[in-house]
């Protein structure tokens, strides 16, 4: 079992404006050497709203020498004040390269499939990101990333370039 607390800050508009701040508390159970399940609670702070999210991740990783290919399916429910709650199924593919015990760059692709939507279930967003993780030790790590986000199948679709930084503590 692993318990972790992660704080993530996302900026936009050439890193001049706060997009969001996340605080995640999660518990992960490693079912086997390559498969794990995570349950999490996220507190979301945006300039104009506060929200909370519950999600469960089912993850599989396949190491290939210094490379690791990871697949993840996330099932999430977000409680949005003064609006309809949102439910998503979010498949993600990640490729990581282990430079050393401390450094690990990565690239990721993620799709958002909205569930129980009044206009019908549909894919409506994709995210491509790249970045690097740095592990100070077994318990402390940081992550810097760039995220390109594109909505589709929605009115007034958003396209965003986001810079993110996070700190993670595991015990």
In total, the number of strands is 10
The main sheet comes to: 10 strands, antiparallel, barrel
Q: Biggest sheet: strands side by side, in what order?
A: 1-2-3-4-5-6-7-8-9-10
* Overall 3D shape: globular
Helical/strand content category: mainly beta
Helicity, in percent? under 10%
Summarize the SSE layout with pairings.
Blueprint: E1 2-12, E2 17-30, E3 35-46, E4 49-64, E5 67-79, E6 86-97, E7 103-115, E8 122-135, E9 140-151, E10 159-170
Antiparallel strand pairs: 1-2, 1-10, 2-3, 3-4, 4-5, 5-6, 6-7, 7-8, 8-9, 9-10
Question: What structural keywords apply?
Answer:
171 residues; mainly beta; 10-stranded antiparallel barrel; 0% helix
Structural commentary:
The structure is a single chain. The protein has 171 residues and is mainly beta. The protein is 0% helix and 75% strand. It has strands spanning 2-12, 17-30, 35-46, 49-64, 67-79, 86-97, 103-115, 122-135, 140-151, 159-170. A ten-stranded antiparallel β-barrel has the order 1-2-3-4-5-6-7-8-9-10. Strand 8 and strand 9 form a beta hairpin. It is globular. It starts with a strand and ends with a strand. The relative contact order is 0.16.
């Amino acid at each position: 079992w692993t318990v972790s607390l992660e704080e993530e800050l996302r900026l936009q508009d050439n890193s001049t404006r706060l997009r969001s701040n996340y605080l995640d508390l999660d518990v992960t159970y490693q079912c086997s050497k390559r498969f794990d399940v995570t349950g999490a609670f996220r507190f979301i702070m945006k300039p104009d709203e506060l929200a909370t999210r519950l999600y469960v991740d089912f993850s599989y990783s396949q190491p290939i020498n210094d490379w690791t290919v990871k697949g993840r399916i996330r099932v999430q429910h977000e409680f949005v004040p003064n609006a309809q709650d949102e439910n998503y199924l979010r498949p993600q593919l990640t490729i990581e390269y282990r430079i050393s015990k401390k450094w690990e760059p990565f690239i990721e692709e993620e799709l958002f499939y909205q569930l129980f939507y009044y206009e019908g279930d549909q894919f409506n967003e994709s995210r491509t990101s790249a970045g690097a993780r740095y592990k100070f030790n077994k318990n402390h790590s940081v992550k810097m990333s760039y995220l390109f986000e594109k909505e589709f199948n929605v009115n007034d679709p958003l396209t965003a370039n986001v810079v993110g930084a996070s700190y993670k503590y595991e015990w």
